[in-house]
Amino acid sequence: MANLILILGDQLTRDISALENADRDRDVVVMAEVHDEATYTNHHQKKIVLLFSAMRHFARQLESDGWQVHYQSYHPDNQHQSLEAVVGEQVKRINAEKVITTECGEWRLHDQISGWHKRLGVPVEIRPDTRFIASKQEFADWAEGRKQLRMEFFYREMRRKTGLLMTSEGEPEGGQWNFDADNRKKWTGKPQAPAQFRIEPDAITRDVIALVDEHFSDHFGTTDDFHFAVTAEDAQGALEHFIDYALPCFGDYQDAISDTEDWLFHSILSPYINSGLLDPLTVCEAAARAWYSGRAPINAVEGFIRQILGWREFVRGIYWMNMPGYAQENRLGNTRALPWFYWTGDTKMRCMHKAIDATRRNAYAHHIQRLMVTGNFALLAGIKPEEICDWYLAVYADAYDWVELPNVLGMVMHADGGYLGSKPYAASGKYIQRMSDHCANCHYKVNKSTESDACPFNALYWHFIDRHRDDFAKNPRMGMMYRNWDKQKPERREALLRRAGDLLANLEQL
Ligand SMILES: Cc1cc2nc3c(=O)[nH]c(=O)nc-3n(C[C@H](O)[C@H](O)[C@H](O)COP(=O)(O)OP(=O)(O)OC[C@H]3O[C@@H](n4cnc5c(N)ncnc54)[C@H](O)[C@@H]3O)c2cc1C
Ligand code: SF4
C-alpha cells in the first residue's frame, strides 16, 4: 500500500526527512496551497508569492525526479481549504497506509497534525527536521539544569559540534569566540553597498503574482518588483552573490542603519534558509571558506556564522521547549494597542517611517531595523506582545512562528522575563542617531527630549525605565540606567514623564 508524504511550504528541500526511504513508484507526495495557511495572519503579498511560486517549482522538480505529486493550487473556491482536508481526501483516494511528514515549524500546525491520526484514521509518522544543526532534544539536554540560557554558550557548543571556525586543537579561529566588538560601525555611504541580487519572475512566478494580486490584494505589502529567488539553484546564486560582494563588509556594518539603502551588507538569505531552498550548514561552510581563502575578514565571517549557528538554532530551541505557554507571556504587563502606522508607515518619525516603508515594499528589513527601531518603539510604548508578534509574523518574507516569536516576544519585548535575553534592548533616540543618518532628516529633534518637537524615543525611554523599576532595578546590567535616571533633577524627570505621557496618549498622531 502507498504512503502519503506531506511536504509543507517551508520544507522545500530535496532530502527532507519525509522523503527518506520512500518509494517513488508507490508513494504519493502531497503539497497544497490552502486558504487556511495563506490567511491565518495578514501575510505580506511578497511572502505569499515567494512561497507559492517556490512550492510550484519544487513540485515540478520532484516530478522530474520521478515522484508522483498531488499538488493543489490556490483558489478561494477550492473544496478543501485546510491541509487536514486535503490530506484527508488524498488518504482516501490512494487508500494510504500511513501519512509521513517532517515536523513543522509552528506550534499551531504541529498541534493540528498531532491529532490527525485520530481524525483521519491512519497512522501519522512525524519525522525530525534534520536541517537544523541541533535537534530539539539536543537543545533541551543542553538547557537542562541551567539557571539562565545564554546564546553565547550554546553557540560555542555548536562551533565545537560542527568544527566551524575551529582550529585542529579545538580552539576558536582568530583566538576569540566572538568578534562582535568590531561590528558596530556607522555607515556613511562608503564603501558602496552592493547591488541587490535579483531574479526576474519566470512564467510560474508571474502566474502566482497575478493570483496574489487578484485574491490577496487586501494583505499587507505589494507584489511590485518581486525579485526573490524561488528555486534552490537561484537561492545558491544569492548565497554566492552575498559571499562575493557583501560578506567582506557584513561585520563592520552589521549594526548600521541607512536612510537611503534598504539592504546594506546583509545577506537576505533568511527567506531561503527558512523555506528550505538553502541549507543552513552549507551557508555557514561557504562563509567559513571565504575566510580561509582570504576573501573576507574574521569579524565578518564569525559574526555571520554566529547569527545562523548561534541565534537561529538558539531561538528554535527556546521556542520548542516553551510552547505553547511562551506565546502567552507578557511579564511587563503591556496593554497598549499597536499603532496603525505600523501598517501604513504614516508617521513623522523618520526612522520608523523608513523601516516600515522598506518592510512594505520588500517584505524585508534588516535585523537592526527590526530590533532597534520598530521593536524598540514597541517596547518603549508598551505594546501588547501578541499584537506586535502578529505584526512581525505577517510582514516579513522570512517569518515563521518558531523564529519570529522568540525574537519578538523574548528579544524585543522582554515579555518572557529575561529568559532569552539578559536585558531589554531599550534605547533612546541617541542610539538611532549614532547608528544611522535618519535623524538629520526627521521632523523630530533627536537632541531634544521634553519639547513638543523632541524625539519621541527620548522621553519614552525614560518612561520605560521609570515604570519598570520593580522589574529591572535589581538587574546588574540595568543598574547604570537607574543611576542615570535618579541623578537627574526632579523637575527634569517630571518633564520627561509628562512628555512621555502626552506621547503615549497620542501615539497614533506621531
Ligand atoms: C523583532 C525581530 C523579529 C525577527 N523575525 C524574524 C523572522 O521572522 N524570521 C527570521 O528568519 N528572522 C527573524 N529575525 C532575525 C533577523 O532579523 C533576520 O533573520 C534577518 O534580519 C534576516 O535577514 P538576512 O538574511 O539579511 O540576515 P543577515 O543579517 O544576513 O544574517 C544572516 C542570517 O542569520 C540568521 N539570523 C540572524 N539573526 C537571527 C536571529 N535573531 N534569529 C534567527 N536567525 C537569525 C538568519 O538566518 C539570517 O539569514 C527577527 C529579528 C528581530 C529583532
Ligand atoms: S529624531 Fe528620533 S524619531 Fe526621528 S529619526 Fe531620530 S530617533 Fe527616529
Automatic annotation (TrEMBL):
Pfam families: DPRP (PF04244). GO terms for molecular function: lyase activity. Keywords: Lyase. Transmembrane segments: none annotated. This is Cryptochrome/photolyase family protein.
